[in-house]
Amino acid sequence: MSEATTMTDQNPTFTGRKAVVIGGTSGMGYASAARIAAQGGDLVVVGRNETKLAAARDRLAEHGTQVHTIAADLADQDAVTALRERLTTVHADATLLVNAAGVFVPKPFLEHTPADYDSYLDLNRSTFFITQTVAASMVEAGNAGAIVNLGSMWAHQAIAATPSSAYSMAKAGLHALTQHLAIELAPHKIRANAVAPAVVRTPIYEGFIPKDEVDDAISGFDSFRPLGRVGTPEEIAEIVTFLLSDQAGWVTGAVWDADGGVMAGRH
Of residues 30, 52, 120, 167, which has the active-site annotation? Predict the structure, then answer.
């Protein structure tokens, strides 16, 4: 068997499986959805913006798989309740889940308001119960599955240039949830892992940096990393889809650093 054939045979495949991607209209969530679709998986993409959902659906459908979309604001608990009902009644056959929705607005600890804090708390609450809903459907059907949460390097370590106490607290909670899911769901053959990226070129930074300045601002973090550059959504998506795949069948409860070497050390 040639090396090329061997590598092809080892590529993850999601044919016949359905993945729910929360926050799948842009950035790491969209890149993960695109890789799942390219590898034969059907998708349920959840996002807040109807226009972005429609655009994502059209692009993802080019891979020839089924793409469903659901609009939901994860800060609105009524919307989350409706989303959970839809996932239970229409998409209970999903066996893969990617939690990629994110909020990131650096602010000094002494300047945080209750509203700032609640924006992270609300997202974690929604993630918790959406995950519970998808996992419960897997358990009821007796389906093995996999969950990947998008955590953060900031949950491991504080960075003075980007003060993010509330964000980091929320992401540390997501890392802890990942480990608890791994233990509790293992008897049901459901794996749970997390990826902890550092700075990645995604639209999330447009929330606090003017759009035309984002690239330069992000590039300013290149030298901070031993590998000399920030990451791309596609690089994170490769890790996400590996952890979702049967290739990672003996991996659960891991928090995978994907940070250009920052946690190893820095220049």
Answer: 167
- Within the chain, residue ranges assigned H as helices are 3-10, 27-38, 50-60, 77-89, 114-141, 165-185, 214-219, 233-244
What is the per-residue pLDDT for 152?
A: 94
Summarised one tens digit per residue, pLDDT across range 84-136 is: 999 999 999 999 999 999 888 889 999 999 999 999 999 999 999 999 999 99
Neighbours of 40 (CB within 10 A): 15
For tokens 């800060």, name the residue: 75
Please list, in sequence order, all residues whose beta carbon lies within 8 angstroms of the beta carbon of residue 110, skipping any fewer than 6 positions away.
none
- Angle in degrees, CA 173, 232, 11, rounded to 5: 90
Q: Give the active site residue among 171, 189, 205, 211.
A: 171
pTM: 0.89
